[in-house]
Inverse folding.
């Protein structure tokens, strides 16, 4: 690993990706077993998460601090936060939900978590980070590892594949844009809160126009547990830690850890959904760890 990668940075990303991974089995339960419409669930989930995080920030930093204030333009800061919410929450999660309707969840997840590949490509051409041969090979290893962990079926509808890749590209664009926004005086927790709230509102509006709804009072105790886990650890926790880590490290370094998310999702599915452990999964984990190591190594010249 690069000497610039701190232990705290690694812990932040490991915990963040664990929480992100936990959203797959919990979301699968709520959508498949409790039959909550996906866009309605996403809207309610992120609106509550965004409001909860902003209330916490208001108590911690003061109400005046949660209002975005850029040095030169407050309006531009609001636009930047809305931009993050659209890409990170509404587009990325919205496209992923659309992909689930056309291709199986494993293939959708593999395509969605090609995100580090797009981040490094964009960062290279935007002169933010360098794409070296070792990093490129690391990306290929990571994507292969994710595919092995999820044991994908290569058959898939082209429209579903396009939706999943659009979700990955949306998140990649957000990651590149967020790096400059995080350089402002706004704490990352506040940025995470606003982006979830804005993105959640957009998802909720989409669900409203699609006439989606759900009687939450009929949700079982297990359903409520999964829902609140999805709101707090899997949303508030994951996005807060993600933006905090992104503020501290490079976009390529942070994004490489996203390969851990489907691995954690599979592990949690094995524990709670009784899915089996396979040799492919263990080999996939090994490739993912190797990929993260290769991407985070820096050459002596850099």
């Amino acid at each position: 690993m690069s000497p610039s990668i701190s232990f705290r940075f690694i812990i932040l990303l490991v915990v963040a990706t664990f929480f992100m991974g936990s959203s797959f089995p919990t979301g699968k339960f709520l959508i498949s077993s409790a039959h909550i419409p996906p866009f309605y669930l996403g809207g309610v989930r992120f609106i509550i998460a965004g409001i909860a995080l902003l209330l916490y920030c208001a108590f911690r930093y003061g109400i005046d601090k949660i209002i975005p204030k850029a040095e030169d333009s407050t309006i531009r800061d609001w636009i930047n936060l809305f931009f993050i919410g659209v890409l990170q929450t509404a587009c990325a999660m919205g496209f992923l939900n659309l992909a689930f309707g056309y291709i199986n969840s494993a293939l959708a997840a593999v395509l969605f978590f090609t995100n580090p590949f797009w981040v490094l490509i964009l960062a290279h051409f935007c002169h933010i980070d360098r794409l070296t041969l070792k990093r490129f090979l690391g990306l290929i290893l990571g994507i292969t590892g994710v595919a092995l962990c999820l044991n994908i079926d290569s058959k898939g509808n082209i429209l579903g594949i396009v939706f999943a890749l659009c979700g990955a590209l949306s998140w990649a664009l957000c990651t590149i844009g967020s790096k400059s926004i995080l350089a402002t005086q706004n704490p990352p927790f506040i940025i995470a809160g606003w982006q979830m709230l804005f993105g959640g509102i957009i998802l909720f509006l989409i669900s409203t126009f699609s006439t989606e709804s759900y009687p939450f009072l009929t949700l079982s105790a297990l359903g409520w547990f999964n829902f609140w886990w999805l709101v707090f650890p899997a949303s508030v926790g994951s996005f807060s830690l993600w933006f905090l880590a992104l503020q501290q490290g490079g976009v390529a370094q942070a994004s490489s850890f996203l390969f851990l998310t489907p691995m954690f999702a599979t592990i949690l599915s094995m524990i709670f959904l009784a899915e089996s452990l396979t040799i492919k999964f263990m080999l996939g984990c090994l490739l993912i760890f190797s990929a993260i190591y290769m991407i985070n190594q820096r050459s002596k010249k850099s």
